[in-house]
């Protein structure tokens, strides 16, 4: 793989994020949203806060920034607290980014 291939992948990702409205989110919010999607399991597909936090996309985000970004995703309606679960579990909603 070379830098040109990475640049092409990055351009494709940017186009996809734009189509989905994800460019309106901060990079940290996007990374947390992607991490939730990857670690979600069960029915409904819920993600434990610890699993989200340990995902490679979210692991390097400072703790306070992580919590602010997660709270922002909840306030935007993109993520919700998992119903009928204990605290610290989240689900993706059907809403699209603004």
From TrEMBL:
<dbReference type="InterPro" id="IPR036390">
    <property type="entry name" value="WH_DNA-bd_sf"/>
</dbReference>
<protein>
    <recommendedName>
        <fullName>MarR family transcriptional regulator</fullName>
    </recommendedName>
</protein>
